[in-house]
Amino acid sequence: MVHLIAPVEEPLDPIDALRRVAFLMERTRAGSYRVEAFRKAVKTLKALAPGELDRQVDAGTLQEIPGIGKSTAGVIEAAARGETAAYLSGLEEKSGGPLTEGGEELYAALQGDCHLHSDWSDGGSPIDEMVLTGLETGHSWMVLTDHSPQLRVANGLTAERLAQQIAIVEAIDRGVGEGFSFFKGIEVDILDDGSLDQSPEMLSRLDLVTASVHSKLRMNASPMTKRMVAAVRNPRVNVLGHCTGRLVEGSRGTRPQSDFDAKAVFEACAESDTAVEINSRPERCDPPDELIGLALDAGCLFAIDSDAHAPGQLDMKAYGAARATHLGVPPDRIITTWDADRLRAWARPA
């Protein structure tokens, strides 16, 4: 069951207090520069020698440590005293409630996420921080889906880097133990001809593949349709990510949706058992409502995903759950409500 981290009732230790601040800021889309100050402070504290933090707090010299500023020092000092800083209390009051109204029952039923990023590509946090926040927010499973090589602006993973990441994901999955599954995945680019931006051999090593269009979004409708149909029919593609590529708000501005025959694409998804992603990021809100209706009529499965690029953004699935509920998407047709065993069997059938 996915749920919001409960409001803090007892003071946190300094590292967890900083993490909590960053989480609350990320889930409400605060500026990345402000968030990074708290994430950087976490890394700084973890690197200190034993006893060094207490010494610096007692001496009142925290801000002399590179990476610790006035705001982060205030949060650390309060936590070290067994108190909650006013900065954190204010965030809890302002940003700690539900992100949106509606869809609460479906949101509570979500168990996993098929689309999230780490700092291996264009995410802002290490893999282990994404997993830890996933555990804290009640996920039963997550799929790490960093970008593929062609998306250089997002530091897409070459085959060699992906192989290294696979080993790390497998180690984390073994280390976490029962009750949580960490799946190997990728958000692979759909190339101009509908082929995938990673070798078949590497894709065969993954548990789940989300495929998305990131280039030539203004391609004419006919070739775009052929491109997308070819991709969703590929046996290694499990989820069609943010299918229209549109942006409706946010710091990157707006972008119109791509032109394609949605009925043909969704019929191909249904025939190939490829889920259509309901991308929960407010700046995407993708697919539009009318296309979700077409996908429903076509018999498609769906994946309510966060497309998280930071730990706090994992909570954005609340927006997707609200939309899916409003549009009448049956919960059992949403693969992110399934348990890990069912997801695994569907994604890689024998």
Provide the descriptors you would attach to this structure in a database record.
about 40% helix; about 350 residues; single chain; six-stranded parallel sheet; globular; alpha/beta
Q: What is the gist of this entry?
A:
With 350 residues, this protein is α/β, with parallel strands linked by helices.
Description of the molecule:
With about 350 residues, this protein is an alpha/beta fold. It is built from 14 helices and 6 strands. It has a 6-stranded parallel sheet. Strand 5 (about 275-280), helix 12 and strand 6 form a beta-alpha-beta unit.
The residue fraction in helices comes out at: 40-55%
Return Rg in Å: 21 Å
Overall structural class, as computed from helix and strand content, comes to: alpha/beta
Query: How many strand elements?
Result: 6
Tally of helical segments:
14
Q: Return the string of H and E elements.
A: HHHHHHHEHEHEHEHEHEHH
In what order do the strands lie side by side in the largest sheet?
Answer: 1-2-3-4-5-6
N- to C-terminal separation?
27 Å
- Approximate shape: globular
* Largest sheet, strands/sense/barrel: 6 strands, parallel
